[in-house]
Amino acid sequence: MNKEELFYIQSNTTKIEAGKVLMSEPFLNSYYFERSTVLIIDHDENEGTLGIILNKKLPLGINDIIKDFPKFDGDVYLGGPVSNNSIFFLHTLGEHIPESIEICDGIFWGGNFNAVKALIKNGLIQHHEIRFYVGYCGWDCSQLHDELENNSWLVGRISSKMILHTHPSNMWKSFVKSMGKKYQLWDRFPINPNDN
User: CA 132, CA 91: separation in Å to the nearest integer?
Assistant: First the structure.
């Protein structure tokens, strides 16, 4: 991994915007956010922020969750605590899925779900081109700002290819290692400090 692929700077000095990534500090004690990497999908100073957790893979496939879905070897991830009875998706298929929104270079959010099903049924989507998420993350206009001020998150940018091509179990640790000497001890901290 080279410096061009991943670059982080301290959270409370970085502008929040779609396509940036939040990295939780190592002791953030939360079922959803412990050692999580969150992609910002949308941010509005007055409305708040929407994101999706990238690295919490569930032990289920998409066919386990949606019974009438075409047979597909698609992973499902825990996207966040909001609307966790709904499925969301990131993909690299752009205009092939109408109503998609480009979040960052070559990574798209959502789109017409019936088009996704039709493309899968016809064998036109590969498992590495799409990821499904249960729920999403949401912050009101002041909540995320307060969390950044409390240093709960670092904000940075990763290359588009790393969003869908970094193995979820290694994502947080890999990104921490790339952040330089200032953060080199983060990945060595135990998940539970009492285990020390």
Answer: 9
- Bridge partners of residue 49, in order along the sequence: 43, 139
The alpha carbon of residue 55 and the mean position of all alpha carbons in its chain are separated, in whole angstroms, by: 6
The DSSP-derived string for 155-184 is EEEE-HHHHHHS-HHHHHHHHHHTT-GGGT
**C-beta of residue 153 within 8 angstroms of C-beta of residue 25:** yes
Contact 27, 9 (CB under 8 A): no
Q: Which domains does the chain have, with CATH numbers?
A: 6-195 (3.40.1740.10)
Gap between the Cα atoms of 55 and 172, Å rounded: 7
Answer for the pair 43, 49: CB distance below 8 angstroms, yes or no: yes
**For 116-161, what is each residue's pLDDT tens digit?**
999 999 999 998 899 999 999 999 988 998 998 888 888 888 888 8
Handedness of CA 91, 137, 18, 168 (dihedral sign): negative
Q: In angstroms, rounded to a whole number, what is the distance separating the alpha carbons of residues 81 and 86?
A: 11
Q: How high is the pLDDT of residue 15?
A: 81
Contact (Cβ atoms closer than 8 angstroms) between residue 18 and residue 41: yes
70, 120 Cβ separation under 8 angstroms: yes
Low-confidence ranges of the chain (pLDDT < 70): 1-14, 184, 187-196
User: Does residue 177 contact residue 121 with C-beta atoms inside 8 Å?
Assistant: no
